[in-house]
Design a protein that fits this description.
Number of strands: 14
CATH class: Alpha Beta
Pathway: Carbohydrate metabolism; hexose metabolism; Carbohydrate metabolism; galactose metabolism
Radius of gyration: 20 Å
Protein name: UDP-glucose 4-epimerase
CATH architecture: 3-Layer(aba) Sandwich
Keywords: Carbohydrate metabolism, Galactose metabolism, Isomerase, NAD
Strand order of the largest sheet: 3-2-1-4-5-6-11
Cofactor: NAD(+)
CATH superfamily: NAD(P)-binding Rossmann-like Domain
Structural class: alpha/beta
Largest sheet: 7 strands, parallel
Family: In the C-terminal section; belongs to the aldose epimerase family.
Number of helices: 12
């Protein structure tokens, strides 16, 4: 019997698909909506191959309220939402800010309105460490705790700050109105998950990140350099005040990140805390050059790169202090940076066309053998 039914908005994307997999593996029913702008329906096939269960799927844009209403009406059993649906490239967000505010903020408002109409009161939101901006502007804020003041330095980050505010105001208002009417109010809850740099792929090698256009994240770009699809990696700035001059980031394996969403959802359902924010990260910072070295080691040869100027909105150090999530959620990262690099290379090497090819037979055989 299912523990509950969760709507995963943006569930065919990278983190969304891995979270849907984790939910199914932990006895939740899953309904996915996605407009497939930067993802593929093939992710559903891969989820099913790995866990033997297939999520329900609707090609719906998160800004389309009537379509959202239809999905909720078809699935009255939905009791919670995990919300990933967003545009997510920092550089691009500065070029097309209106589109980012329309999709990210407008889409979140549409989703919350539809949830309210259908009495769905729990939401886990995919936020970002970018909400903190440059935490080095404060003393003793690296690694970054949840108490760090919020001040995003780019449009993408500002959309996340705005959505966190909208969700907080909405949940608090619903709780207050219910209390004033002398009705139950504890069912209204939200988790704001501020996570750092997701990376890696499924260890089976048949499921990973497959952006439709040019990837914006470091490890997928390195993967394309390793396969020869890209000539070299662009390193944006080597004049930061770090141990080698490049920016420092906290890399977290996507399997650990998916488990963090599951832990947050379970916490909301069990403890009914209202609105809570948690950092999901490893607590370990790695520079860009260290990441290039780690991935080059897995690939077996040095990968070419070129240092260019800094990007607008980038900051020196985004390393998490995950102590609160460790304590309250009982969650911590289990997989290493080396695991993430090895899993990503297995995915990229075996699936150079991503989801636009069938998974290699040897990987499928190994997956079946592992289940036997």
């Amino acid at each position: 019997m299912a523990v509950g039914t969760v709507l995963v908005a943006g569930g065919t994307g990278y983190i969304g698909s891995f979270t849907a997999l984790a939910l199914l593996q932990n006895d939740y029913e899953v309904v996915i909506i996605d407009n497939l702008y930067n993802s593929s329906k093939v992710a559903l096939d891969r989820i099913e191959l790995i866990c033997g269960k297939r999520p329900a799927f609707y090609q719906v844009d998160v800004t389309d309220e009537p379509a959202l209403d239809e999905v909720f009406a078809k699935h009255p059993e939905i009791d919670s939402v995990i919300h990933f649906a967003a545009l997510k490239a920092i550089g691009e967000s500065g070029d097309i800010p209106l589109e980012y505010y329309k999709v990210n903020v407008g889409g979140s408002i549409s989703l919350l309105r539809s949830m309210s109409r259908h009495n769905v009161a729990n939401i886990v939101f995919s936020s970002s460490a970018t909400v903190y901006g440059d935490a080095t502007r404060f003393p003793d804020m690296i690694p970054i705790p949840e108490t760090c003041p919020i001040e995003a330095t780019n449009t993408y980050g500002r959309t996340k700050v705005m959505i966190e505010t909208v969700i907080t105001d909405h949940i608090n208002a619903e709780r207050r109105k219910a209390q004033q009417a002398d009705k139950p109010y504890e069912q209204w809850n939200a988790a704001l998950l501020r996570y750092f740099n997701p990376c890696g792929a499924h260890p089976s090698g048949i499921m990973g990140e497959d952006p439709q256009g040019v990837p914006y994240n470091l490890l997928p770009l390195l993967g394309k350099v390793a396969t020869g699809e890209r000539e070299k990696l662009m390193v944006y700035g080597d004049d930061y005040a770090s141990r080698d001059g490049t920016a420092i980031r906290d890399y977290i394996h996507v399997l650990d990140l998916a488990e963090g969403h599951l832990a947050a959802l379970n916490y909301l359902r069990e403890h009914k805390p209202g609105v809570r924010a948690w950092n999901l990260g490893s607590g370990r910072g790695s520079t860009v050059f260290e990441m290039i070295k780690a991935f080059s080691k897995v690939v077996g040869h040095d990968l070419p790169y070129e240092v260019v100027g800094r990007r607008q909105g980038d900051v020196l150090d985004l390393t998490a202090n995950p102590a609160l999530a460790n304590k309250e959620l009982g969650w911590r990262t289990k997989l290493t940076l080396e695991d993430a690099c090895a899993d990503l290379w297995r995915w990229v090497e075996n699936n150079p066309k991503g989801y636009r090819q069938d998974p290699p037979a040897k990987l499928l055989e190994a997956l079946k053998a592992g289940k036997a």
